[in-house]
Amino acid sequence: MADCSKAVGSMCFGPYELLLDSEELRKDGNRLKLSGQAIQVLVVLANNRGKLVTREELQQRLWPGATCGDFEHGLNAAVNRLRETLGDSATDPTYIETVPRRGYRFIARVDQVPNTTDSTVPNNTAELHCQHAANMRSDLAQSADELATDLSRQSVALTQPRTSRRTPILVAVIPLCVAIGLMAWSTRRNAKVRWARHDVLPEIVRLADADRFDDAYRLAQQVQPLIPDDPLLAEQMRGISRRAIIESDPAGGEIFYRPYGRSGEPWRPLGKAPVESKVPRGLMHWKIEMAGRETAEDVGPGPFAQEFRGQFTLFDPNHVPPGMVRIASSDEPFHIFMPGLEHLPEVRLPDYWIDRHEVTNRSFKRFVDEGGYRRPELWQEPFVKDGRPLTFEMAMAHFRDTTGRPGPAGWEMSTYPAGQDDYPVGGVSWYEAAAFARWAGKSLPTIYHWARAADLRLSGDVVPASNADGKSLRAVGATGGITRGGTTDMAGNVKEWVSNSTGSKRYILGGAWNEPVYMFTNWDVQSPFLRHPNSGIRCIKVDRPEDLSPALTAIIHTPSRDVRNMKPVSSAVFEAWRSLYSFDHGNLKVQVEFVDDTSPDWRMEKVSYAAAYGDERVIAYLFLPKNAEPPYQVMIGFSGGNIFYEHSSATTTDFDRFNFIMRSGRAFLYPIYKSTFERRDATKDDTPNMTAAYRDHMIMWSKDFGRSVDYLESRSDIAKDRIGYIGLSTGLAPVFLATEPRLSLGVVYMGGFYLQPSLPEADAVNFAPHVKTPVLMLNGRFDYFFPTASSQETLFEFFGTPPEHKRRVVYEASHNIPRNEMIKEVVNWIEKYWGPPTPRY
What we know:
By secondary structure, the chain is α+β, with helices and mostly antiparallel strands. The protein has 20 helices and 32 strands. Strand 19 (495-502) and strand 20 form a beta hairpin. Helix 6 packs antiparallel against helix 7 (231-240).
């Protein structure tokens, strides 16, 4: 214990001395680096030693006026800093004890305590370590084993012949000892269960909300044997894990994986194929090995996949083209994921080989040295420039280096700069790329082959790991940007020519090191004579000539719609169209289907009410928070994508995306819209088209939304002036926000304008200027559904909301924004306009 005998206005605990007036912490006479809110929290706790200091008291005293998000962040940082400085532990505290869901208590013995004022601190869970949980499980197992051994020994002793008059005493004592042992073991186990539920579970939630799925999953694995039936743990496991089903041909391949982007970490064994197992959610890098076979790699699954199915063929090394990897297509038709090209039909895409790396200077030099520019048979495509055909000799005059010799645009004397052997070749036209591919016995990829290997759905992980930072060109494979099959640099470095044309131009894909990062997910078309330094090559090799079918090599027309150049209709025309979306607010005929009150955080009511059309009924799930008092603020949700192909709302995990709303003290309504879940029909998604059927569905979706507002207004426990909209991965927000005047705020989460057109009376472009409510937009810079410039920014500009009441936040992500960032922005936005909910104590 530190010496406090000469200190006035101080208190001592362990080796520490806390000076209250100056708010200093000393150890062995030396001042420790602890200041700001951390030291203030310590003073409050120490002044209330042995007493519970609630989160609310801490917020009122130390964070007055702060938003919920700022308070939580500040408190977490302060307590983490305190525990780090004191060498304390959340699981085995010496100084600061966590009281789950309530606050903190200072538990150390204190010497020489002066009179002080009362204070308080909020709840914060310190960083836990998986090894601690592993040791806990080991101790528990050991305790059980020891107990079993003791019981066995006592049983043996009882069966031995009596040799002493002490036997009756032993017979009486042994059951007592056994009972005491059982009680001790049970007490110890119950303590570990409390630790798992009160300390570890909040940490798992925090890690999951920060998208640290691997860390959360490994921690959850450690405590699952202790609390296997805990509903919150089950909810978290649904969100942080995925099923992996992996097969190899031949069977028996050794399967390894690790989280994407962690190339410095060791591979984790999963077993021999075939394997079905749980793995952490998130993008994984896979490797399958077998003696005498070529190692196979892949990455997956995508951010919204519910499982990963991998089928790996392990080839004889003698049958693998040098420098190429195998891309396996499933038996399902392939549909391209590229903004503006979603209209392209599904195609059959047989398995093929693709260059692992972009073509290097060294490889292209061989083509030059072997007379590639002098061999007309390699240049089979007609040369057409500015609408005028060219002869072979005339065309070759365009393909010279800086010294007039044959070669890429940036070379000198038909060679590349020294030291750049393994850099990707650049400065080549589409014609040169096609000739090189033919010389190499390969082909240029079609847009389908390129997109299948690049898999733009993975852009949020791939782009940050690739050479797309605008600094300089790099050697092939130098970054961690790995895509399907183990390909590298499909994002950034140099962009890559593909075979398809549109008019007189050719597609070139992937973006380059010196282009905007979102170009990985966008298509580009250029003159086939373009020889920019960032124009490069990657080749494919098919098994049979017929695998390059006409459907794959066909002309691909670029979309004609550019939203940026569109002009919305006049207000008079819009008002006439708005009448299509009006309906009679008649009898709802509400029915309560069932109630689920098992969650510690919310009560769920499944209800149905009359739709505004036909004889149909709208099903809806209403979640009411248990930590707030009515009347409740409420958000109404609309999700994109999965709601159209999942068959039952009873089994969906989509609710989990919105559970932070209830935990923030707000209600949440999840309607089952026309064409979704149990109400599905021939409409497969909300992507626009020019049919009257799509327009009619847009109107029905809007009416379902309006009837949901009717239902909320019919309830006495809902704040009728605090009803908002939150849309996830959809472009329908402008329609809902413009046609429903009872909304007081909106959140557009990973949304934008669709690039596909629809009939004008259903086109969101014509609705956005009539939105006046406060709107928050959250987007990923690499979004492959809603491109940054042509979709996200344009929607934000078109919104008619006053500039001071609309906000857009862009993350270095794709179509999956970090959850903790999303929660912070959404909750802060709600509190800005509605204020905090009324807490329930």
